Amino acid sequence: MLELVESPVRQKKSLAEKNQLPDQFQRELVQMFKLLSDETRLRVLMYLYREAELHVSALCERLQQSQPAVSHHLALLREAGLIGCRRDGKHNFYSIRQTHFHRVVAQLFQNIADPGKLEFRFDEFTVTPRRKSEA
Questions:
Q1: Distance (Å, rounded) from C-alpha 48 to C-alpha 92?
Q2: Tens of pLDDT along 9-29?
Q3: Distance CA 41, CA 78 (A)
Q4: Candidate CATH numbers 1.10.10.10, 1.10.1140.10, 3.40.50.1000, 1.10.340.30; the one for domain 22-127
């Protein structure tokens, strides 16, 4: 004999539930923002963005820091996947891995955005683009 079973009722997810960040992505994002909270690492990224590629000695000169200190910052950025390294002879040349950085930022905004509006909602505030007359 067949028994009629009702399908479970699907509850609509709230906007907050829809915009939850996956755990792995959230950890990656937290790590990236921790790295970017350091002034030296931000300056490293700025120089790499401007020059496209630099070796450690050039970064040491620009940052006015020792080679071990700069290498430490580079290692942290490289481990996070924000920069890449290319070896040429005895020099390591560093550059920004733009596709990774852009993917992380794009995924962040995809997860917090309401596609129907030109704004990004966070728990306690909303970011909306300025209109040209407001600038």
A1: 13
A2: 555 555 445 556 678 777 877
A3: 11
A4: 1.10.10.10
